[in-house]
Design a protein that fits this description.
Layout: H1 3-27, H2 57-70, E1 86-94, H3 98-105, E2 115-122, E3 129-136, E4 143-146, H4 148-152, E5 156-157, H5 165-179, H6 183-190, E6 197-201, E7 213-220, E8 231-239, E9 249-255, E10 258-260, H7 263-271, E11 314-316, E12 319-322, E13 325-332, E14 336-344, E15 347-362, H8 367-370, E16 373-375, H9 376-379, E17 399-407, E18 413-437, E19 439-458, E20 461-469, E21 475-483, E22 487-489, E23 498-502, E24 505-508, E25 510-520, E26 526-540, E27 548-559, E28 566-568, E29 576-584, E30 590-598, E31 620-626, E32 662-674, E33 690-698, E34 713-716, H10 732-735
Antiparallel strand pairs: 1-2, 1-17, 2-3, 3-4, 3-5, 6-7, 7-8, 8-9, 9-10, 11-12, 12-13, 13-14, 14-15, 15-16, 15-25, 17-18, 18-19, 19-20, 19-34, 20-21, 21-33, 22-24, 23-24, 25-32, 26-27, 26-29, 26-32, 28-31, 29-30, 30-33, 31-32
Pfam families: Cu_amine_oxid, Cu_amine_oxidN2, Cu_amine_oxidN3
Domain Copper amine oxidase N2-terminal: 59-143
Organism: Thinocorus orbignyianus
Length: 753
């Protein structure tokens, strides 16, 4: 080998070594951090959406201070107030009248004064009552006016007030004193002295107006687990109507199918061997029914959704914008999520979209279960929407927003990170087509939606509230139920009311019904209600006149009055039902939005029931009424504790008024029947337990507005499909070659408990 050849080989060897070193040095190098790019869309709101904004903690504090200084009565902090005291029960924003808001938003009028709605319990008066005041203007109030009679036609009786946390504490103390009267029974049945038993309320609280007597169900309480699945068979009825706590009494005791006048009588029956006692062992934490502790150590992480260039939506104050959408969002402490001024491409589609109520109605052969009808708004759907767990309740990189409330306290509280906003790639095409004839091409658009989400925990159940906005102009509203089932002690013919899911546990059947208000403004405030459905007509074929064809045809109808537009639950309804404008689209059809309901509701309470009017909204899967400022909600928080004389009865809204070319509201009920089963242990899954509805454009546009989406993909046999400039999918590799900016995980959801 000559020197020249040797030199060439050495140079090649050095080059190879250098290349290998470069590979080794770059192999372990972390990818660059994703750089957020500013959004192309401009936010032109100028703070107009703040007319709908929830109160800030500072505003709540100012309202409390004003009431303390100007009502002329002594106010006790509600967290410590006795029923015989006066206290501030809650403070929330008073949303201005729609006409005032629209003059401001659309007509260049003055901004409406910002006001609060304060609810006070007056127990220290000759005539105890609940009073509601509008207080304003904020942030420095100088006036208040009593609106109770204006809203409800009279004073709200004191017994209709919600049960406060302090009242529950006093009831628990009474029950503990009573339990001490049966020590040997408790030791024999439950391995307990009573102090380690959990107590759950039922509602409503009696059988007639003025009653305030509640059944309480007792469970084994094992820390860190769902005690709702461990009933011990003992339930007690407490009468807590009197304003003086010392006069409250335990009126009845139930155990394993038998009723007793007192805990003392139960103890006597046990000592006399006349009581059938079922020994319910207190399980250790590792063996308790319904434990959510992981069975295995964590595995490899699952897929992660992230935005390489940052979010494509914008959140400013109480407003979110996304690809033509604009939504003002908020949270009512009682009724939960509420959205206002929903616009697409600058046009208002919905003025108000808000949850009204969530009903859970149970069946059982135990007194607590058989009498339970929870109206969750009275407990606080929004108030009990706690912090969301990043990466599980919502995507890890979602935007998390704090919510503030003032209830049963003079001090505002914050549920941090309790509402999340994110763009969601569903992994499903919104639309697509592959052409294999004439010409060869593919066109499609991925289904990417904006989601606004909150999750409420109401005793045992968790409700996931979703509001989704699609690029074709559709709005989707959905709720999923999860959390723990409620249970009764299994005795007698208990399986007539559910399934056995544990040694002594009956998973009790129940229904979930939710009610929404949808104030649609389709191409303006004035709309009509139109329906379309199909029928068959038998015709001769026109080319021979010798054969018959069953030809489907479209039956169109405009509904004229409210009675026609009230569709009973679980009965056939026109498949196409739309809010229609008087203005046509390019093709001559009325610009419309269609309401499409997805629900598997159980049976509504019979109208013969003495409490049915309090939930009469549940009679209808859909009811359309004329919008009235004096009919802002379909129910009231006061209905729970007096359903026999409801403060608000939705049935009264439907009085056959004309609904042609009027400002209309759609009231929508969705729900499902739940018969608990073994797979509801440890707790209920969201799969199959979701219901909701769509608001879909129907001839509102001249074509699908998503046709203009920059996310659209078109591939043809004549193009270079790998060219980034023509195909956004080809850009993903360089665009996603960065690491997402993941904030450190933190959870503070237990701080306000």
């Amino acid at each position: 080998m000559n020197m020249k050849t040797l030199l060439i080989l050495r140079v090649l060897a050095l080059a190879t070594i250098f290349a290998l070193v470069c590979v080794l040095l770059t192999r372990g190098k972390a990818p660059s951090v994703c750089q957020h790019q500013p959004l192309g869309q401009e936010d032109t709101d100028d703070g107009h959406s703040l007319v709908f904004a929830d109160l800030s903690p500072e505003e709540m504090t100012q309202v409390v201070r004003y009431l303390q200084e100007n009502l002329g009565v002594q106010l006790v902090d509600a967290s410590q107030a006795k029923p015989s005291d006066n206290c501030i029960a809650s403070v929330d924003v008073q949303v201005p009248a729609k006409a005032e808001v629209l003059r401001f938003l659309d007509g260049g009028g003055a901004r409406p004064p910002r006001e609060a709605l304060a609810v006070l319990y007056f127990g220290n008066q000759p005539d105890p009552n609940v009073t509601e005041y509008v207080v304003g203007p904020l942030p420095r109030p100088v006036y208040h006016r009593d609106v109770t009679v204006q809203k409800y036609g009279g004073k709200v009786p004191y017994h209709r007030r919600a049960v406060t946390g302090k009242e529950y504490v006093d009831i628990n103390n009474l029950i503990q004193r009573e339990l001490r009267k049966a020590p040997r029974f408790l030791a024999a049945c439950c391995e307990s002295d009573g102090t380690d038993l959990a107590i759950i309320t039922t509602a409503p609280r009696g059988f007639k107006s003025g009653d305030r007597a509640s059944w309480f169900v007792l469970f084994h309480n094992t820390a860190g687990t769902g005690y709702y699945l461990s009933p011990v068979g003992l339930e007690v009825l407490v009468d807590h109507r009197d304003l003086h706590v010392s006069r409250w009494r335990l009126r009845k005791v139930f155990y394993n199918g038998q009723y007793f006048a007192s805990m003392g009588d139960l103890e006597d029956a046990f000592l006399a061997n006349s009581l059938k006692v079922v020994w319910v062992e207190k399980p250790p934490p590792e063996a308790v029914l319904g434990s959510l502790r992981p069975h295995h150590p964590p595995g490899s992480p699952g897929p992660l959704q992230y935005e390489p260039h940052g979010p494509r939506y914008s959140v400013r104050d109480n407003r979110v914008t996304f690809q033509g959408w604009s939504i003002a969002f908020g949270m009512n402490p009682n009724t939960g999520p509420r959205l206002f001024d929903i616009r697409f491409r600058g046009e208002r589609i919905v003025y108000e979209l808000s949850l009204q109520e969530a009903l859970a109605l149970y069946g059982s052969n135990c007194p607590g279960g058989m009498s339970t009808r929870y109206f969750d708004g009275s407990f606080g759907i929004g108030r009990f929407s706690y912090e969301l767990v990043r990466g599980l309740d919502c995507p890890y990189t979602a935007t998390y927003v704090d919510r503030h409330y003032l209830a049963e306290s003079e001090t505002p509280r914050t549920n941090q990170n309790s509402l999340c906003i994110f763009e969601h790639d569903t992994g499903l095409p919104l639309r697509r087509h592959f052409s294999d004839s004439q010409s060869f091409y593919y066109g499609g658009l991925r289904k990417s939606t904006l989601v606004i989400r909150a999750v409420s925990t109401l005793i045992n159940y968790d409700y996931v509230w979703d509001f989704m906005f699609h690029s074709n102009g559709a709005v989707e509203v959905r709720v999923h139920a999860t959390g723990y089932i409620s249970s009764s002690f299994l005795h007698g013919r208990g399986t007539n009311y559910g399934n056995k899911v544990g040694p002594h546990t009956l998973g009790t059947m129940h229904l979930h019904h939710m009610h929404y208000k949808v104030d649609l403004d389709v191409d303006g405030q004035l709309n009509s209600l139109e329906t379309q459905d199909m029928e068959y007509e038998l015709v001769k074929d026109p080319w021979t006149m010798q054969n018959t064809i069953e030809r489907p045809y479209l039956r169109r109808e405009r509904l004229e009055r409210e009675d026609e537009a009230a569709f009973p639950l679980n009965t056939p309804m026109p498949r196409y039902l739309s809010f229609a404008s008087s203005k046509p689209n390019k093709w001559g059809h009325p610009r419309s939005y269609r309401i499409q309901i997805v629900s598997f509701a159980g049976e509504h309470l019979p109208t013969s029931s003495s409490m049915e009017r309090s939930i009469s909204w549940g009679r209808y899967q859909l009811a359309v009424t004329r919008r009235k400022e004096e009919e802002p909600t379909s129910t009231s928080v006061y209905n729970q504790n007096d359903p026999w004389t409801p403060t608000v009865a939705f049935a009264d809204f439907i009085n056959n008024e004309t609904i042609t070319n009027e400002d209309l509201v759609a009231w929508i009920s969705v729900g499902f029947l739940h018969v608990p089963h073994a797979e509801d242990i440890p707790n209920t899954v969201t799969v199959g337990n979701g219901v909701g509805f769509f608001l879909r454009p129907y001839n509102y546009f001249d074509e699908d507005p998503s046709a203009g989406s920059p996310d659209s993909v078109y591939l043809s046999s004549e193009q270079d499909t790998g060219a980034c400039r023509a195909n956004p999918l080809a850009c993903l590799s360089p665009a996603a070659a960065c690491a997402p900016r993941l904030p450190p995980f933190h959870y503070g959801g237990f701080l306000n408990l």
